[in-house]
Amino acid sequence: MKIGIVSSEFHPINAAAAARSGSWASFFVKLGHEVTVFTSAQADPGNGNLVRSWFRTPDNRASIAKRFLQEICLGLDLACRIMLNVKKTEVNLITSPPFFMAALCALACRLIGIPYVFDVRDRYPNALFELGILSAESLPGRLLLGIEKVVYESSLFVSTVTKGLVADLNGINRGREPLLSCNGYADIPFKEQPLSNPRFPRFTIVYHGRLGRFYDLEVLCEVIELLEDMEPEIRFLMIGDLSVLEARRSWGNVDFMSEMPLVELAPVLARCHMGICLLKETEAMRKALPAKTFDFIGSGLPMIVSPGGELFEMVAKEGIGLGFQQNNARSIAKVIFELYQNRDQLETMRKNVLIVRTEYGREKQAKSLLERLSKEIIY
Length: 379
Fold this sequence. Notes:
By secondary structure, the protein is α/β, with parallel strands linked by helices. It contains 14 helices and 13 strands. The strands form 2 sheets. The protein has a 7-stranded parallel sheet, sandwiched between helices. Strands 10-9-8-11-12-13 form a 6-stranded parallel sheet, with helices on both faces.
């Protein structure tokens, strides 16, 4: 099968979209399918059959207006490239966000008669409504909801990353049930070997990735400050482009590391004691399972998560960490301090992570996507 993958990010970018689309590409190629990836300018031209845009990936830290313009430019460029390469693909997998980029690429597929799957990692425009950027009742809000409806209804099917989003999207595509395809962790970098690495001598809580609009930076900072006073031997390791945190003050218990490829990141994560992921208390985030939490699972790390929602429920059900219904910095700091003192409880959670991790590899998720795709194409 000739499969196109449309993603704003691809290797070597360290981001959720790149990890998700990269796992699809490698798995499909391994099974003998012909894969073409349509992506941004930062992708490595030597990495497979890429069609790269002139434009870069939209910047999460940019203003709303600038981000919108970046998405439109990238979307128009990739849409043109999809139409120019019509003979290279029989079906396209389009992952969103960026929503405007993805919607333009979906339109291109409709114009040239190529079926597409629309992959929803975060549901836009609902996220914009919850952040207070737009009102659902406003003219722009109604327009975006209309675009969303058309994009979903015109797809072969919709895939998404959490049970909450499956429930939201059920019935939106002519009765075709959405496919649950979790993020998972990248199988090759997070192989068994890194799990045998010795942990850091100092008790280390790790965060990696970006601190975008959906993460509770204020509560995270307060937790770090409280633990600095409670127990100086507890340190936080922050990996990635986290200048927004680094610039806030001089941190005595925080070490920063630059963004690194997954093959380098995996053994570093495995040397830590816990991961942390504090999302904002919004309805959208209660239905989120961020990619970084699967990297923690792949590394054998228990995790601290909040607020209540699907991530909280997964962690509680599997016994792989501790969750909080609300983002209460004092409660979170107190529990981390208690885990620092009681390593037996932490070790029990780590053993649980090692038991369940086999269920969350990206290749397993890609297999279910390919099975559904093959069935839809045949019928």
